[in-house]
Amino acid sequence: MTIGFVGLGKMGGNMVKRLLSRGHSIVGFDTSKDARAEAERSGALTVSSLKELAEALKSPRVVWLMVPAGQVTSDVIDTLIPFLEEGDILVDGGNSFYKDSMAHASRLASKGIYLLDAGTSGGIWGLSEGYCLMIGGVEEAFMKAEPAFKDLASENGYAHIGPSGAGHFVKMVHNGIEYGLLEAYAEGFEIMHAKKNFDLDLRKIAELWNHGSVVRSWLLELSANIFSQDPTLASVDGYVADTGEGRWTVAEAVEGNVPAPVITLSLIQRLRSRQETSFSAKVIAALRKQFGGHTVKTTAGKK
Prior knowledge:
- This protein is 51% helix and 15% strand.
- The chain is an alpha/beta fold.
- It is elongated and about 75 Å long.
């Protein structure tokens, strides 16, 4: 099938390559000339505007959006609407907030246009390994776009989850779980790294745990890769970013009166990683000196 693709960056570009390798035709758009050139080298036709993209596709169109969540996604949809027709399908494969996706779907439905919210997991490995796709929206639209989902996904790696918003909701929770998993692995490896008298080989341990252990996972495979390249992570800064899904998951838990302490604390730890110096830690250190006479390290490193 022929698919319009908006957003040819790190994720979108790889998705385009995977679709092309499986016989689909791509009409792509990106504001970056370099991204468009890379897509063209892979075999895609690219255009320089969203209007040209819509004109290059036959109705019913399938247009996949792989752009940043929030205002950028809204702006792309607003720009595309005048060039779309009844029966056309937009697929939002980004990490949009599920309530935004529900609102977009409702607005587009009034014009006879479908929106499928496709939570997409797989990262940069999706090109070779396939993606996991969690899709919300009208089932009729899902079935029309299914050939693209099937060829993008790993084996059994896509499903119609529910109505509009469900795909991005499930992806949001997926990423919240990811926060907790990453934090648990990170804490475990730090505990082992701190045990200097054992001189533990973290790469060897990560590889070992992936053979029969109950904590085996793809993340452990990646951990082994990391420790083989940089055993002490000396080249890595401890700043951990977040793209919003963890915050949304915690907010949803609070709204639904669902206790989610692990995910919540893993989010707080990411915020902590961005402080060069923790003021709260200073307060605790100072209070310990006040009530217990405990020593305090000065900013110069002296007690």
